[in-house]
Amino acid sequence: MWDYTDKVMELFYNPKNQGLLEDDREPGIAVVFGEVGSIACGDALRLHLKIEVNSDKILDSRFQTFGCTSAIASSSALTELIKGLTLDEALKVTNKEIADFLGGLPEAKMHCSVMGQEALEAAIYKYRGIPLAVHEEDEGAL
Ligand code: FES
Ligand code: FES
């Protein structure tokens, strides 16, 4: 049995922002989603973002995951942390910040908090029209 904090368990039982965001085509608003893993397969996560185009701000987000307790709690935490941030600010949210928000995560479960960030990155890069593969090569070159 993993040693989860009360906050992790609270968000596992009552996750915030779980589900999807409909694209209701409001003017000046974009809705995108990013995905990691394979939804058909198992450990996977999809993160939807509602973006105000002019300000580049995240107005809202929702996640869906088949991942474990930590993935659910981390994704829920991420949706709360990124609300109101610009896309550039959201890209800087670290998995340590996610873990801190949760009062800590077991070391072996830190990777679950990374899934949310990867889905966030995938959504933002899709929105910006940047292929993820190019981004990964860029990172390798740094
Ligand atoms: Fe993907 Fe079984 S469905 S490994
Ligand atoms: Fe796979 Fe947490 S999402 S172990």
From TrEMBL:
Entry superkingdom: Bacteria
Domain NIF system FeS cluster assembly NifU N-terminal: 4-130
Signal peptide from the UniProt entry: none
Binding site for Fe cation: C41, C68, C112
Function summary: May be involved in the formation or repair of [Fe-S] clusters present in iron-sulfur proteins.
Family membership: Belongs to the NifU family.
Name of the protein: Nitrogen fixation protein NifU
Species per Swiss-Prot/TrEMBL record: Chroococcidiopsis cubana SAG 39.79
Designated gene of the protein: nifU
